[in-house]
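S., here's the first fold you wanted:
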Amino acid sequence: MINTNDILETIRMIQDECLDIRTTTMGISLLSCADSDIDKACAKIYDKICTKAEKLVETGEQIEKEYGIPIINKRVSVTPIAILAGVSGGDPVKYALTLEKAAQTIGVNFIGGYSALVQKGFAAGDLELINSIPQALAQTEHLCSSVNIGSTKAGINLDAVKIMGQKVKEAAELTKDNDCIAAGKLVIFCNAPEDNPFMAGAFHGVSEPDCVINVGVSGPGVVRSAVSKHPDYSINEIAELIKKTAFKVTRMGQLVGVESSRRLGVPFGIVDLSLAPTPAVGDSVAHILEEIGLEQCGAAGTTACLAMLNDAVKKGGVMASSSVGGLSGAFIPVSEDAGMIAAARSGSLTIEKLEAMTAVCSVGLDMIVIPGDTTPEVISGIIADEAAIGMVNGKTTAVRVIPAIGKKIGDELEFGGLLGSGPVMKVNTKSPAQFINRGGKIPAPLHSLKN
C-alpha cells in the first residue's frame, strides 16, 4: 500500500534537505576494442561508447522529470585504458583524447577509466599510461584517472607509489593556471573496487559485464536533519535513526537504478549507498558529526563519530537494495564539504586527523589542497601511509591531493561546482625520500592468506 506520509517525507527530503541521486554511471567494457593499431582501437572505442551510452543523459533527465528525483551527474566508466595500451602501444594520450571526444558527444559530466592496476607490478602498457597521465588530464576536461597501487592481497607497490607522487605534482604544475585541476581528477587507490560509480576513481573492472548501470546516492543533509530533531537521543539511538534514514535514501537509488536499467536495456549493477557531500550549505558530512555532538569536525571524538556513522549507513542501506557495491559509506572530501572546508580553515581539521578518519570511512584523503612546494617524495609518503591503512584493514583507501602551485598555507583554490574550494593545508615537510627511493614492494599482511 502507498503511504502518503512516506511520499511527503521524500518530497521534503528532496526540496529542503539536498537529497539527490549523485550519479548514474554506465560502465562499458572496452576489451572488444583492443587492436594492435592504436588508431583503429580509438575508433572502436569512440563508436562503442557513443552507441552504448547514446541515451544515458536523456534517460536520466526523463527519470528526473517523471519521478521528481534530482540526478546530478550522468557519467561513464570504462575498462582500465592501460590494458588496451599494452596491446596497441603508441602514445596513450590518443586514448585520452578519444574518451574526451566521446564524453562531449554523449554529454556526460565525467568519463573515468584512464587507469592502471599495478598493485602487483607493471604489465605492458601500465608505465606508458601512468607517465602520460599529467598530459592526458591537462589536455582534457571530462576525463578522470586512477591508479591502484596496493591491495590487501598483493601488498603495496612502492615503485608505483614513488612514480605517482611525481605524477600528482606534474599534473598540478601543468594546470597551475587553472587551479591545478588536473590533480583533482587523479586518485591513487589501495583496494580499488571495480564497480565504483563515483569520480575520479571510477573504472569498469575486467570482471564486470560488457555494459552495466551503477547508481551512487547521496543524502548527508537528510541524515543531518534527522539527527538534529533528536538532541536527547543516546548514541545507539542515533545509530538506529541513521540506519532507518539510510534505508530510505537507498530505496530511491534502487528505484532509479532499476528504472535506468529497464529503459537503457542494460543490466543493473549496484547502488553505492555513500553519503557524498557537496559545498552547498546543509549537505555536509562534517555537519552530521557536529550535530551528533562535536563542537567542530576535527575535535577529539571525530573518528569515533565517523565510525558509527559509516557503519550505520552501511547497515541501513544494505537492506534497501538488491545489490550494494562500490564504496558505500561516508565520504570526507575536504573541498567538497562545507563543514570540512570551515574546519580546515579554522585549524580544527588537520591532515593527520583526516588520516585517522580514513581508517573508518569509505575512501581516504580526498580533495585536499596542499602547499605548491610540497615535494613529490612527501606526496608519495602520504600515498604510502594511506595505502597501508587500506591494506592492513582490508578496505578501500585513496589519495586525491592537489598541490597548489604558487600558493602557501592559508591560501585557497577555487574549483567551482561539486569540487568546491579548499584552503591550503599544512603538510609535514620532513622528507621520506630515502624510504620512498628504496623501491620494491611492501609485502601483504599475514591476514591476506585466507585460502
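And the second, which I think is the more interesting of the pair:
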Amino acid sequence: MLWPMALLLLTACGGNQRPLPTQADLLRQDSLERVARTQHAGRKYGLPEERFLSALPLQALPVTYMEGFEYVLPGFEDVSPTMVMPLFGLEGLTKTKAIRLPDKEGTHVFLVGGRTEAGMPEVWMVTLDGKTWSPIDALSVYEETSPDEESAEAFTDEEDLGTTRVEFSVTSRYEIYIQVVFLSYVDDQRELTGVSVYSIGRDGKFFELEKNRLNHGATDDTSND
C-alpha cells in the first residue's frame, strides 16, 4: 500500500531558544557512528538472497514521513532479524521489515525498519552493490530520543520536556531530507530544529548536500531524472 505523497509541513514554534541544532548534530553523529560500527566487508550473494531482495515490495518515489509510519511500516515485508545483518549490514534490531526503493544509478536502495533493544522504532535507508547485492552504506532516517528520569528532573523549564525525533522525506531525485523535530510534552507543539539534506553517490555511499537548513521539507516531486 502506498501512502499519499503529501508535503511534510513543519513550522517552528515560539518560546525560549534551546540548543537543539547541537542536539540534532549529536543525533546524526550517533547514527553515523553506529553505521560505522556495523560496516563489514561485502560478500557476493548466492541466488536465494538475490531472489529474496529483488522480490521485496517496491515503493515508488517520492515518499514522505507520515505520523505513525515507524510503527505501521506500510507496504513493508517481514524480514527475519537474523537475516538483517548479512543482508543489510544492520544489527541490534527486532521486528524487522523492509521495502525496496527504485535503484539509484545501479545501486540497490532499501528502507529497513525495526525496534531497538529498548523497544524504540528505527528506520534506515540502506544501499547495496548493484552486482553483488552486498551492503555499502546505511543512513538513519527515523529515530527518536526521550529524556530519562534523571535528566528530566534536571530541567529548569517545564517546556524543555519532550521528545526529539528525526523524520524524513525523499524526492524522486534522491534528495533525502532528514528533519529533526522537538515534540513538547507540555503543549503538544512541534518545533522544527534542523534539516540536513543527503543524496547517494555513484559509489553507493550517502553524502551530505546541506546541513542544518530550516525549511518545509522535500518537494513532492514526481518528475523523472
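Why I say that: The radius of gyration is 18 Å. The beta strands are 63-64, 77-78, 94-104, 107-115, 121-128, 135-145, 162-170, 176-184, 190-200, 206-210.

Talk tomorrow,
H.
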